[in-house]
Amino acid sequence: MIGAGVVVAESARSIDILPTLEPRPPIWIEDFPGEYSALNTKRLRGFCALRHVGDLSIRATEPGPFEFVRGREGASSAVRLDLSYRQRQVRNQAMPPPVMAQGQMASRLKAVTFISVVAQHRAPTLHQAAVSPSLTRTSKVCGREQHQTFSFNPWRCASGESYSFGPETHLDWVTEATVILHYDDEVLLAPTFFHPLVSRKYSLLTRLAVRGPGYAAFNLEVPIQVVYKAAAGRERAPDHHHTLREVIDTSGTSPAYSEELDCCVGPGVELPRYVR
Question: What is the per-residue pLDDT across 129-179, written as a single tens digit (0 to 9) for each?
């Protein structure tokens, strides 16, 4: 327990951390308000800044997990991007399809670690960590930033008719793209796991620039998991002692945690390894 920045009470007990053996189901983002941003919309304007020409929206779907496998360096996944364009047009005036959309994406992996002195019965949230005196969290960016250029598929009209709004009509167009993700940093990642006292989760931070019917820049953040397959091999799968030290030592919590680490999970303690 910390009061006014000073440790006023401390206690230690042994815990076993056993992550989920299979990837967890996709996260229901609505259960974590303010933590993720999977959808973003920008208003496009013409050469005259006051002229509204349409709305461009992009949605990212949670990627599949980064799976580390024996004999394969790094891990790969893919994120699907759904792009929609609501085009404004004058009623009864034919409009050509929008210009084919091109994208540029910069992405990084963010890790968030939660440490609690009271058992948590569900995955903690950033809001809980901000208001709870018994729960703390820290975040860091892992690996190198990736830069990719890609093309969206040709536009498709989302409906066979226009939507009328006064003297103008709106026509909806949709397209999509799948962008491959890689993690090949030399630093091994702790897997996604949940324990009532310690948990680790990841998210994908992306900056997107889209050119086509106009130009718009988006910032998105979606959850992603990190898992180790059973065939990952002992030389590649981090053991509990190594990973727990990395999780706690980088959490920025009281020194009491790291000082008591060897008592909690010592080098001689036989614990299961991270496998899937």
Answer: 989 888 999 999 998 899 999 999 999 988 655 444 445 577 889 999 999
- pTM, two decimals, is 0.72
| CB distance 82 to 56 below 8 Å | no
Straight-line distance from the first to the last Cα atom of the chain, in angstroms, rounded to the nearest whole number: 35
pLDDT the model gives residue 114: 93
Q: What whole-number distance in Å separates Cα of residue 74 and Cα of residue 90?
A: 52
Q: Kindly write down the DSSP assignment for every residue of 107-168, as one continuous string.
A: EEEEEEEEEESS--SS---HHHHHH-TTEEEEEEEEEEEEEEEEEPPPPEESSSS-EEETTE
The answer to whether 3 touches 197, Cβ cutoff 8 Å, is no
Q: Which two tokens stand for residue 253?
A: 């919590």
Q: CA-to-CA distance for 181 and 67, rounded, in angstroms?
A: 12
Q: Which tokens is 200 given?
A: 């680790």
